[in-house]
Design a protein that fits this description.
Number of helices: 11
Order of helices and strands: HHEHHHEHHHHHH
Bound molecules: fe (ii) ion
Distance between the termini: 67 Å
Structural class: mainly alpha
Length: about 375
């Protein structure tokens, strides 16, 4: 029962519909999930799934260009996808990891049993990678009741010349944190403005007590960054697909940064996530803006200015022989470059391709900030 090219294109279209919905909804729910470990896995998995969508789109282009694939899902698949229409993050995770991913895995296994290894080797390679990643996802985040909803998701028909609209969750009030995290209006009072200004006035935390507070605050800032990028993607489903891939990559980077600080606190600094209060004033000031404003002020300003401070912090810490802490800043700095570029790339896109207009927008919005980057 080998597949012809049409069967293959239909199968890949069905996988794409499931994965696209997972990327969109996991990006929406990431900020609503309170548990740090689960939030971190969601960020990792949504990045995998975004890249999988890109590869499947590419395979569809190779198989059937020009064409209307992937079209829209069949009524049966649409009904399953509609069941994810919940504001309850726990319920969403149950369906995503208990039904959508297991249904996808089951269909990919059937596909792999019937793929022609020589004449359809590109599909074989793609499916092998897809299967491996989806299996890792449901192992890392088990729903406890994994089942395939369809006998074979890949065999469902697709509706060509139609598209499926994605639903957007209501706006966030603030991100969710573990129940043991104390959230206050002013955040950690230990964190002074001198830590966040650029130039001669900048203070690098070098003493144990100040490093504890600094990295704790930085871990929360990384989570906020991941959550902002995830919501950028979720709230703008009509942006080009590459925008969602860029946002997904940044979500994963920021999540990894939070994991790095979590480990650094436990291994080098003798403190832990939850030891100090956090606050959402800065998050809310950025989240209140439209997409262009968020890109200009977060990626184009906050992250752009953080590059200087990371480099400065690294230099000071290397001189003091604090190599392990200094290395963290070295990698944060490297990752920040593409994050700043995300602002340029997509801010320019929103302004009709005019990069100069984006730079002007950044200048204009920066005028409303104090020396630490807070809106005045
Ligand atoms: Fe970061
Ligand atoms: Fe960043």
């Amino acid at each position: 029962m080998a597949y012809d090219v049409d069967d293959n294109a239909i199968r890949f279209s069905n996988y794409l519909h499931v994965l696209r919905e997972l990327v969109h909804l996991s990006a929406g729910h990431l900020a609503l999930e309170p548990r740090f470990e689960v939030k971190a896995l969601l960020g990792d998995h949504l990045h995998d799934d975004a890249r999988a969508v890109s590869k499947i789109r590419r395979r569809l282009y190779e198989l059937r260009h020009p064409s209307d694939y992937p079209g829209a899902p069949s009524p049966e698949l649409a009904a399953l996808l509609d069941r994810t229409n919940t504001h309850d993050t726990h319920e969403y995770l149950e369906i995503a990891y208990g039904e959508l991913k297991p249904t996808l895995i089951h269909a990919i296994r059937i596909h792999l049993e019937n793929v022609e290894p020589l004449i359809d080797e590109p599909s074989l390679r793609l499916l092998t990678q897809l299967l491996h990643r989806q299996e890792r996802h449901i192992t890392e985040l088990p729903a406890g009741r994994e089942q395939s909803v369809f006998e074979d998701l890949g065999a469902l028909p697709v509706r060509l010349r139609e598209t499926r609209a994605l639903r957007v969750l209501p706006p966030l009030e603030h991100p969710a944190r573990d129940a043991f995290i104390e959230v206050t209006e002013q955040g950690d009072p230990y964190l002074t403005a001198a830590l966040y200004v650029n130039g001669d006035e900048n203070h690098v935390p070098t003493e144990p007590e100040e490093q504890k507070h600094f990295f704790h605050g930085l871990m929360d800032a990384e989570l906020c960054a991941a959550e902002l990028m995830a919501r950028n993607s979720h709230e703008h489903p009509d942006m080009p697909w590459d925008f969602h891939v860029d946002m997904a990559r940044q979500v994963w980077d920021e999540i990894r940064h939070a994991e790095i600080h979590d480990r650094l606190m436990a291994t080098e600094l003798a403190c832990h996530w939850g030891d100090y209060p956090i606050g959402f004033v800065y998050f809310k000031s950025i989240y209140a803006l439209d997409l262009l404003g968020r890109l200009a002020l977060f990626n184009g300003t906050s992250e752009q200015k953080a590059m200087w401070r990371h480099s400065h912090r690294r230099k000071v810490l290397v001189e003091l022989g604090q190599e392990n802490v200094a290395r963290v800043f070295d990698y944060l700095l490297a990752d920040e470059v593409p994050h700043v570029h995300n602002g340029v790339r997509w801010g320019t896109h929103l302004l009709g391709g005019d990069e100069h207009a984006y730079r002007e927008k950044v200048r204009e919005l920066r005028a409303g900030l104090d020396a630490t980057g807070m809106p005045v």
